[in-house]
Design brief:
22 helices; about 15% strand; eight-stranded parallel β-barrel; globular; alpha/beta; about 550 residues; 16 strands; about 45% helix
Length: about 550
C-alpha cells in the first residue's frame, strides 16, 4: 500500500518504522490548586519551570546546526512569552491547578495565533510544544520527543515539534514522513538542512504498523509499506550514490562549461565554515536575523559587525550575499515588530520595518560595511520584501550612504518579478526567494499541509515569474539573478533554473554535491529545453515528471 505526500528532500530508504509516542496526557479538566497552596508560590513555580524549559532549549540550540539553531531559539522564546505566563497566572490566582492553568492558557494563545493565519499560525505549534515541555517539567517526567532506538529506523508522525525536528539524530533516524505539515514547514526545512530523506502531507500514515518495514522516496513523495524488488533496487542505488557525490569538485558548471556558481545559505560563522568545507563557492544567503533572535533590544553596531566579520572570514576572496534583517511574520522581534498584526505574512516585515522603526536598517548597514572593510570577502547586500522601484531606490541609497557598493533586492513579491526591468535599474542584482515567491504567487500559506500541492516551486506560474525576472534583469543592464530559496537544492529544478537563465544557485550546503553532479550531466542547451518543458507544463507534477524523465542520472544516483 502506498501513501502519497510531498517530497521535501530526496533520498530512498528502506527500514523499520517507529511512530512518535503519544503526546503528554492532558491535565484533568477542573483541576484546582491543592488546599492551602499560595497562588503566588504556584505562579513562581510555573515561572521556574518555564525558565528551565527555555534554558534547556537554548542549550540544545547552542549545539544545533544553522536551521535547527534558529528554530530552537525561536521556540525557546515561547517558553518566556509573557502572554502565556500571564494568562496562566490569572487562572492560578483564580484557583486553577498549575498544570491545567498553563494547558488552558497555551490553548488560548495558540488559538489566537491560528486565527491570525500565515506565519503566526505556524507559531501555534511552538506554543503547544512548549506547553507540553512545561507540564513535563512540572511533573518531573521527560518531555515528549523522538523515540529512542539502538537500531536505525524511519520516523512517522502527524507532524514534528520544532524542537524535536531540530535535534534529530541522523545516525539513527534514516528518513521521516509526516501526515501533516507542508513543504516549507519547520520539519521540511530542517530535514533539508540535515540531508534527511523526507515526505510531508502523506495522509494515513498512522495505519502503518509499528516496526513494519517501509520504503520512503523523498523525491517522489512516496511512502510504501510493502516494498518490493523495485523499491529495494532504488534504495540500493541511493546508498551507492554516496561515492559519486563525494567526487564533486565544488565547481558549478554544465557539461559544456557554462558556469553556475553554487553557493550556500548560512546563518553564522559555524555554518559558513561548514559550507566552505563542503565546497561552497560563496554565500548566496547570509541570514542576519539570527544575530537578533533572543534579544529584547537591538544589538549594537559593534556586536553585529563582529558576527558578520566572522562569516566573511570563511569566504575571503569570494562572494557573500548578506540579507538585511528579515524580521516580522514568523520572526517577530520585541524591539522592531508588532506581533498582533492580523496578517503578518503580508504585513510589516523585512525592509518594511524601516517604515515603522527607522534607524535599525541604517545601523545594520553600517555594521555590515565595517565588517566588509575588515575583510577580503566580496560583500553584496540585499533587502527582503521589496515590492516597488522606489523602495529599491531607497535601499540602494542607504547602501551607498553606508559605503556598500553592491546593493540588491530579494524577489519574493510577485510585483518585483513582473516589473524587474524597472526595479533592477536601481540596484545591481536580484535574488529569488522562491519559498515566499511561491506562497504569494499561489495565494497559499506555505505552512499549511492541505495547500502543499499549491506551495510547489515547480508550479508553472512560479517558474514563469522566475523567467520574467531574468528577462527584466537583462533589459536593466544584464543584472545578475540568483536563487536562494529551497528550490535551488532540488537537483532537477536546479537544472531548470539554470535553463531559465539564473546565474547562481544557493542552497543548504548538504545539497551542493547532488546539485553540482546533476548539473554537470547536461549542456546549457539541454537545460534550456528542460526549462521550457517545465514552464509550459499544465501542472507542477507534470512539469516535474517531464524533466525528471529526461534526467536519467537522477535514477542512477537515487535522487
Amino acid at each position: 500500500m502506498g501513501f502519497q505526500g510531498v517530497g521535501v528532500n530526496p533520498g530512498r530508504v528502506i527500514a523499520p518504522v517507529k511512530h512518535m509516542p503519544e503526546p503528554l496526557a492532558e491535565p484533568p479538566a477542573g483541576e484546582t490548586l491543592p488546599a492551602g497552596t499560595d497562588p503566588a508560590e504556584a505562579i513562581a513555580g510555573l515561572k521556574a519551570a518555564a525558565l528551565a524549559v527555555h534554558d534547556e532549549l537554548k542549550d540544545r540550540a547552542s549545539r544545533a546546526r544553522e536551521d535547527g539553531k534558529a528554530v530552537l531559539e525561536a521556540t525557546a522564546l515561547m517558553a518566556k512569552d509573557t502572554m502565556l505566563i500571564k494568562a496562566a497566572g490569572k487562572r492560578i490566582t483564580a484557583g486553577t491547578g498549575v498544570e491545567r492553568a498553563v494547558w488552558e492558557a497555551a490553548e488560548g494563545v495558540a488559538a489566537q495565533f491560528k486565527a491570525l493565519g500565515g506565519y503566526m499560525a505556524e507559531r501555534a505549534t511552538d506554543v503547544l510544544d512548549v506547553r507540553a515541555r512545561i507540564v513535563a517539567q512540572l511533573r518531573g517526567v521527560p518531555a515528549p520527543g523522538i523515540p529512542s532506538s539502538d537500531t536505525p529506523f524511519i520516523l512517522l508522525a502527524e507532524d514534528l515539534a520544532p524542537a524535536d525536528t531540530a535535534t534529530l539524530d541522523t545516525s539513527v533516524v534514516l528518513a521521516l514522513a509526516t501526515s501533516g505539515g507542508g513543504p516549507q514547514s519547520h520539519t521540511a526545512i530542517i530535514a533539508r538542512s540535515l540531508g534527511l530523506p523526507a515526505v510531508v502531507a502523506a495522509a494515513g500514515l498512522e495505519a502503518i504498523t509499528e516496526g513494519a518495514e517501509v520504503y520512503v522516496d523523498g523525491a517522489a513523495g512516496v511512502v510504501e509499506d510493502s516494498p518490493g524488488d523495485t523499491e529495494r533496487d532504488a534504495a540500493a542505488k541511493w546508498a551507492a550514490s554516496a561515492a559519486t557525490l563525494a567526487s564533486f569538485d565544488g565547481t558549478g558548471t554544465t557539461a559544456d562549461g557554462h558556469l553556475v556558481p553554487l553557493l550556500a545559505n548560512v546563518g553564522n560563522a559555524k555554518d559558513a565554515e561548514a559550507a566552505a568545507a563542503l565546497g561552497a563557492q560563496g554565500v548566496g544567503l547570509f541570514r542576519t536575523e539570527f544575530c537578533f533572535l533572543e534579544r529584547d533590544t537591538e544589538p549594537s553596531v559593534e556586536e553585529q559587525a563582529a558576527a558578520y566579520r566572522a562569516v566573511f572570514a570563511a569566504f575571503e576572496g569570494k562572494k557573500v550575499v548578506v540579507r538585511t534583517l528579515d524580521a516580522g511574520a514568523d520572526k517577530p522581534l520585541p524591539f522592531l515588530t508588532d506581533a498582533t498584526e492580523p496578517n503578518p505574512a503580508l504585513g510589516v516585515r523585512g525592509y518594511r520595518t524601516d517604515w515603522t522603526t527607522p534607524g535599525v536598517l541604517e545601523r545594520q548597514l553600517s555594521a555590515i560595511a565595517q565588517a566588509a572593510a575588515d575583510s577580503q570577502a566580496d560583500v553584496w547586500v540585499m533587502a527582503p520584501m521589496i515590492a516597488t522601484r522606489p523602495e529599491a531606490a531607497h535601499f540602494a541609497g542607504l547602501c551607498a550612504a553606508a559605503g556598500l557598493k553592491t546593493p540588491g533586492v530579494m524577489v519574493e513579491v510577485p510585483s518585483v518579478a513582473l516589473t524587474a526591468g524597472s526595479v533592477l535599474q536601481e540596484v545591481e542584482f536580484a535574488s529569488l526567494g522562491t519559498n515566499d515567491l511561491t506562497q504569494y504567487a499561489m495565494a497559499a500559506d506555505r505552512m499549511l499541509g492541505p495547500l502543499a500541492g499549491l506551495n510547489d516551486p515547480w508550479q508553472p506560474a512560479v517558474l514563469r515569474l522566475v523567467q520574467l525576472t531574468v528577462e527584466g534583469a537583462k533589459t536593466a543592464g544584464d543584472k545578475a539573478v540568483g536563487v536562494c530559496g529551497e528550490s535551488a537544492a532540488d537537483p532537477a529544478l536546479a537544472v531548470v533554473l539554470t535553463g531559465l537563465g539564473v546565474n547562481t544557485l544557493s542552497m543548504t550546503a548538504r545539497s551542493l554535491a547532488a546539485v553540482g553532479t546533476v548539473l554537470k550531466s547536461v549542456t546549457l542547451a539541454e537545460a534550456q529545453e528542460l526549462a521550457s518543458l517545465a514552464v509550459k507544463a499544465p501542472t507542477a507534477a507534470e512539469g516535474r515528471d517531464a524533466v525528471r524523465r529526461r534526467l536519467p542520472i537522477l535514477a542512477d544516483l537515487g535522487l
